[in-house]
């Protein structure tokens, strides 16, 4: 939600205090629904996207990742956010989303990096964690994927850790991941570094 900083509005029915309400796609939660099995009626938030991350900003665009869904680009214009492109990758439910990171040469050649945690190693409900996946997209059009670590076996990072984000410095991408708890009696974290191969 975007709100008026001068008048936050307090709690109001149907989000009346929000300056703008955004949805990632058309299946946002309904104000009321009924359980078809029990006949019980529910109102409030029933099904929706969860945000466990922060957004990134670049060249008038805001990039935000949700669970479950893609990274969505919003164009900032006249104080309003307009949905633009989104990634092809859907962040799976239960993975705690992703925090996008933008690298660029000034305001040119922007790249949106994301780390898909898949099944994070700290998830007590999933005894089989999975390797994280590093992906890169063209910042001007998230439909254009530039890189995917799962497509190159040698580039596979360690297991996902919830809430981690890629960091870019000096032409390299750094991500924190974990070792398999079954392969080591005292598993340690690892730092995976990606860059151009010489």
Summary?
The chain has 198 residues and is mostly beta strands. The chain has strands at 2-3, 18-20, 32-34, 41-43, 56-58, 61-65, 71-77, 80-86, 101-105, 108-116, 133-138, 141-148, 167-169, 172-178, 189-194. Strand 6 (61-65) and strand 7 (71-77) form a beta hairpin.
Please specify the SSE layout and strand pairing.
Elements: E1 2-3, E2 18-20, E3 32-34, E4 41-43, E5 56-58, E6 61-65, E7 71-77, E8 80-86, E9 101-105, E10 108-116, E11 133-138, E12 141-148, E13 167-169, E14 172-178, E15 189-194
Antiparallel strand pairs: 1-2, 3-4, 5-6, 6-7, 7-8, 9-10, 10-11, 11-12, 13-14, 14-15
Structure, explained:
With 198 residues, the chain is mainly β. The protein folds into two domains: 1-48, no CATH class; 52-194, Lipocalin (Beta Barrel), CATH 2.40.128.630. It has no helices and 15 strands. A four-stranded antiparallel beta sheet has the order 5-6-7-8, with no helix packed on it. A four-stranded antiparallel beta sheet has the order 9-10-11-12, with no helix packed on it. The chain has a three-stranded antiparallel beta sheet with strand order 13-14-15, with no helix packed on it. The protein is globular and about 50 Å long. It starts with a strand and ends with a strand. The model has no long low-confidence stretch (mean pLDDT 79).
